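Support reply, case 0932

Customer input (verbatim):
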Amino acid sequence: MADIKAFRKANKLTQDELATYLGTGKSFISLVENGRCALPDAKFSMILNNSEGWDISMFEEAATISHQKQDATIGIPLLPIEAVAGVLSGNDMQVMEYECEYYNIPTFKGAEFLIQISGDSMQPKYYSGDIVACKRLPIDTFFQWNRVYVIGSEQGVIIKRVRKGTDEQHITLVSENTDYEPFELPLNKVHSIALVVGVVRAE
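Our regenerated output:
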């Protein structure tokens, strides 16, 4: 696997700078540098063909570049937020409609998709830019209280900690950031759910 960290250090780039150039997030650069997934071929080609004058000799010196091509049938897809609702509800064709990148992360066994956190409502557990791995669950699943779920609702896709509601027809959604008040959601407004099973945090 190409040593992206060595390349970045040699060219005095921050993770943010490289992520911006590649059109991805800092968390993904951290994933690649920690050896938890391979950089997709398209992104690696952007480095090799860069117009920034970066030193890529560490790649050219090898007889062959041991970059692992990502197979679109293997790994966990990173979903754009606009595709999450459809996939949560079981529409796997949503993945096909987007050019999703796939990541092989063995520690996230059972995970079906990845999404990137946006905003600060779940800090300090999850920060904006962090990547969470999710596993879809049947709509009639019994909630494990105090676990974090991705919920498809009439309000859109919500990532919150779930606790008991005031009655059996409601659940309480709680943010980690105490600046955000907990609120109740009627169970009949919950269209789909997924359990958060792991997180990758940017360095």
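We compared this against your earlier run and they match. Two observations from our side: The radius of gyration is 19 Å. The chain has two domains: 4-60, 76-200. Please reopen the case if you see a mismatch on your end.
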